[in-house]
Amino acid sequence: MAAHTKGEDVSDNVETTIVMNGDAAPATCEAGTTIGLPDAVVQARGVERDYGQGDALVRALAGVDIDLQRGAYTAIMGPSGSGKSTLMHILAGLDRPTAGSVWIDGQEITTLKERALTQLRRDQIGFIFQTFNLLPTLTAAENITLPLTIAGRKGDQDWVEELVKTVGLGDRLTHKPSELSGGQQQRVAVARALASRPAVLFADEPTGNLDSRTGEEVLQLLRHSRDAMGQTIVMVTHDAHAATYADRIVFLKDGAIAHDCGRLGRDDIYDVIKSLEDA
Amino acid sequence: MVRIAWRSLTAHKLRTILTVLAILLGVAMISGTYVLTDQIDRGFKQVFTDAYKGTDVTVTRQAKFSGQLTGATEGLPEDMVKQVDAVDGVAESFGYVAGMGAVAVDGKVVETGGSPTLFFSYSPNDIAPPQYIAGRPPEQSGEVAIIQKLAQDKKLAPGSSITVITGDGAHEATVSGVFKFAAQSSLGGSLLIHTTLADAQSWFGMEGRLSEIDVKAEAGVSADTLAKRVRAALPAYADVKTGAQAAADQTKALSDAIGAFLRPVLLSFGGIAVLVGAFIIFNAFSMTVAQRRREFAMLRALGASRAQVLWSITGEAFVMGVLASVIGLFAGLGVAAGVNQVFQAAGVDIPRSGLVLQPRTIVIALAVGIVITLLSAVIPAQRATRVPPMAALQEGAQLPPSKFARFMPALAVVVAILGGLLIAGGMYGPGGTMVRLGTIAFGAVLVFVAVAIASRYFVGPLAAALGWPIQKIAPISGRLARDNSRRNPSRTALTAAALMIGLAVVVFVAVLAQGLKSSFIDSYDRTVRADFVVASKNFMTIPTDTATKVQSVEGVETAVSLDAQQVQAKNGSLPVVWGIDPNAIERVWSFDWITGSDAVLTKLGTDGAIVEEQTAASLGVKQGGTIKVTTVEGKEATLEVLGIYRDPMMLNGITVSSSGYAALFPTPQTFMVVAKAQPGADLAATKKGIEAALASTPTAEVQTAEEYKKGTVDLVNQLLMLIYGLLALSVIISLFGIVNTLVLAVYERTREIGLVRAIGMSRGQVRATVRYESVITSIIGAIMGIVVGVVFAWVVTTRFAGQGITFSIPGVQLVVFVLLAIVVGVIAAILPARRAAKIDILEAIHYE
User: Fold this and answer.
1) Among A113, A121, A201, which would you mutate to test the B interface (most chain B Cβ atoms within 10 Å of its Cβ)?
2) Across the interface, which of A95, A121, A133 has its CB nearest the CB of B760?
């Protein structure tokens, strides 16, 4: 299938977000709108994102409406080129939509200036990336408190201690990232993302570079942060196993939401993906 | 491979531009030096060639030697013209008197910026007729003709009045005409004045005598033949030359003065700039080779040989070298104009011709630029060839360590010792001044290299220490900057080392100047008991009768004239002989006796002398010994040494009584009059009185002791500023080096910057991080420069302790230099910091 779809083709797909074709979708997937949920901490309306122009125009997002509830653990899935990473970047304020708006905690972020966006990233957003998550010159402990240091705050010491305990690095806290395993590094990254108690934690393929055992540790840590601390999490992944940890799975195709499901097992997820690829 | 080299150059435009600039500026300085000094050479040559155009033979008094304080010779008897006319083949001849002095308009001395005001008596002749553009030559006593530039500058015309000041005093004169000399409206800053022969003889103490006789040959008689005949007809003291020879000799004398001073001095500033550039090229190539490690590995994996990789990089260096040299060569024309401006701003006006670009200049500029660039690139290039093909598959940007890495500390020690030995050899060993200075300079370069090699081992701790306070001020950007500056110690070390070189020389000069100033003041305070000093600006002479005039002023107790001329001693040195009034001197002067006492002063007579310690040592004489001296005219005398004193700054040389001085020299040459006020006299009123007494001779400036000291210190400061101006180039080049390093570092850390931005770092904080890293690097450079510069200065002052330069650290200035280094760091960071702040977070995160 085509990785990207041109503008005119997409307008049809926009319809699919509203009129779901429920054939292949498992029973837990809701047909219909993904908006209007109570207590939404992240809201997106009519988000479009084009890259390039003229003949080279690529429409990565073709009008996405979505609400993410406070305390929800949401996975965003979809085939390559479906726009899942672009959607996350725009929800997190790393990228700007071509059209549409995004609100975080009731504040519209799509109109924010650079300075305010920086402030937003400091206070309300946490990030975990696939690779290269830590500063090589800082120790694990320093990496964890980095967002607080950047903001020039002491932060909540009890909270930081609790995080450190949760991460379970023990005596390796004073080590540099190069002396830690990939799983340990990613756990430090999770702790760092939680350090400033963000409104939303965005994770971009957090297990993409890890083997299944260490990946499991990271996923459990994320789940723990949701269950024990009520952390709102948005995770982009193409790993079906990772997605089973989420309470809600949103499937994207061709820059639009294809399915919006609750908790799914691995086999159900495979079925949905297969149906998307076949369609 | 050539294409790869070219693509690499064009792909990294900023890096290429910065690296090319680093070597370009040094090449420009060198080419500019040659262009400027060639212009000056040719300027003088034109002047003298034109001046002697119609002259076939010249006759002057034989001079035994020439020195800065060489006095005028006794000259030739006036009737020698008749002897010359009697020689077969002489068509025409005329004699004239030449002298130096000053002119004043409306009571104000006309400033010449250190150039002389030259007087020539004018006799009607067809040999070298001046070109009069207004009025006529002087005919009656009290008439003078002036050069066009003076007329223009001071708005003078025939009929204007002007004051002529010579060693004899002030003389009122009327302008009779305005002329061009040798088709020139001016002779650099020099002023030319024509007088009548009788006036010149009277004003310059040359009654019945001539300075020079110029001769024109009859048709068919060659200049050489005529010169031989004239020489045969005249006494041995007459120096007979052809006109062409005289022009060449005078050109050479001035060119040599430039060649011996201006050219090597300017070239050494160019050399420093090139050395700094070499460090930057070495560093730039080391960094880019490390950065392109995977590219080289891939080329190797595709079958490129080591030699091909080596050629690709040296090819790149070659192109840069050619580019830098060619642009630098032409930029040198601008530098020549710029340096001339600097000199003019400092009050030194040198005649120069139009543009001179000799093949020699082109060859040297190209050779220096290309060779230095290639040499600086060859070690990094060699390291690139050691990248294994496997590296193409690996992460990271570390080069394999050089084969010699573990010998580096030993190498630094060996190079340092070698440099130290060369410096010691240059200072204490045998050989001419230039050879010794060259040896010292080469030794200094080796020391710089040794410090640069060694610096990678202490840059880490130093950066940590310097970063600590910064981290306290700015917790996150300070911390990251501190870490970043320690990540690649050899890179930070080399970048700082480039700044070190320029600053070390600045500090060295500053410490020496401080020593000079403080020992001058110290020496003055210890020896001079006078309340007033009367001297001219620019170390020109003042009228001989100044002391007499000052003595007659109410409130003045004693006024003593200090006259000076150089003589030649047996060992070829040219000590200064000071003439003083032995009966009055002890009232204004307190000799610092080593052997002897004030009692010997009255016993000086006509052939006694007291000698300054350094001169005594160089001549190898002690109290009771004798010194044989020869005057410029060839008069020989034997002086008995009655005492040895220490006075390296003021009366350095040989001091004799005024009668002994008069016996040696035909003209006095007064440089200074020191005067003491009567006890209880009103100093301000007395000073006014002296000024009034000297109103007619404005070249003689009256200063209190404090003013005189300050004036001399100011003069040293002025020179210091000139040197700082020339050294600024090296500092600017090292600034490019910092920019280059930071740009590369920012590029390498794109992902890190994206990450910290994503988790909330502001653009300002990113900029600050780069800025602090830059400042840490520049302060490291400043510290290294200060340490090396102070050590160099200490070594030199220790060696020359007896010659009046003490070791004295100018603390305030050193602090200023560190602040300056911080400014350099901040400026260097502007562009890289902006680049870092502009990095797009999304792109950075996905950046490989």
Assistant:
1) A121
2) A121
Number of other residues whose CB lies within 10 A of the CB of residue B172: 10
Partner-chain contact B755 A138, CB within 8 Å: no
Opening angle at CA A224, ends A222 and A226, nearest 5: 75
Q: What single string gives the DSSP state of each residue in B380-408? A: HHHHHTT--GGGGGS-S-PPPPPTTGGGH
3-class secondary structure, B238: strand
Between CA B540 and CA B551, with CA B545 as vertex, the angle to 5 degrees is: 115
Distance CA A172, CA A153 (A): 24
Task: Mark yes or no for CB contact A147/B760 under 8 Å.
Answer: yes
* Closest CA relative to residue B653, chosen from B593, B583, B573, B767: B573
Could you tell me if the ipTM is greater than 0.85? no
Return all residues near A54 (Cβ < 8 A) that are at least 6 apart. Answer: none
Of residues B760, B763, B842, nearest to A114 (C-beta): B763
At B836, the pLDDT band (50, 70, 90 cuts) reads: very high
Binned average pLDDT, 10 residues per bin, chain A of 279 residues? 37 36 54 70 92 85 90 91 89 90 91 87 88 83 87 80 80 86 88 89 89 88 90 92 92 89 88 82
Collect all residues of chain A within an 8 Å Cβ-Cβ radius of residue B765: 150
Question: What pLDDT is attached to residue B259?
Answer: 67
Which of B752, B762, B842 is closest, CB to CB, to A115? Answer: B762
Q: Which amino acid is residue B315, in one-letter code? A: G
CB atoms within 10 A of CB A87: 29
pLDDT tens-digit readout, B572-604: 888 999 999 999 898 899 998 999 888 899 899
Which has the closest alpha carbon to B46: B192, B250, B339?
B250
> Sheet harboring B57-61: ordered strands across?
B90-96, B212-217, B57-61, B238-242
Alpha helix ranges (H) inside B489-643: 489-527, 546-551, 585-588, 613-619
Residues of A within 8 A of B773 (CB-CB) are: none
Q: How is residue B530 annotated by DSSP?
A: -
- Which residues in A lie closer than 8 A to residue B763 (C-beta atoms)? 114, 118
For B154-200, what is each residue's pLDDT tens digit? Answer: 899 999 999 998 877 888 999 999 988 766 665 666 788 999 999 99
Global confidence as pTM:
0.81
Please tell me the distance from the alpha carbon of residue B379 to that of residue B312, in angstroms, as a whole number. Answer: 13
User: Do the beta carbons of residue B144 and residue B194 sit within 8 Å?
Assistant: yes
| Domains of chain A as residue ranges with CATH | 7-124+198-278 (3.40.50.300)
Least confident of A75-79, B20-24, B354-358, B469-473: B354-358
- Chain B positions in Cβ-Cβ contact with residue A129 (cut-off 8 Å): 755, 758, 845
Which among A94, A137, A150 has the least Cβ separation from residue B765? A150
Q: Closest Cα partner for A145 from A135, A136, A158, A155?
A: A155
Please determine, for residue B57, whether its predicted confidence score (pLDDT) is greater than 50: yes
* Angle formed at CA A220 by CA A217 and CA A226, multiple of 5 degrees: 145
Given phi > 0 = left and psi -120 to 50 = alpha, else beta, which region is B391?
Answer: alpha
Count other C-beta atoms under 10 Å from residue B570's C-beta.
11
**Percentages (nearest 5) of helix, strand, coil residues in chain B:** 60, 15, 25
Type of residue numbered B434: M
Q: Does residue B73 sit in helix, strand or coil?
A: coil
- Best mutation target, A49, A149, A154, A194, to test chain B (most B CBs within 10 A): A149
With CB atoms and an 8 Å threshold, state whether B842 touches A94: yes
pLDDT at residue B153 in the model: 84
Spatial CA neighbour of A165 closest among A134, A144, A136: A144
Residues 6+ apart with CB under 8 A from A57: A6, A7, A50, A51
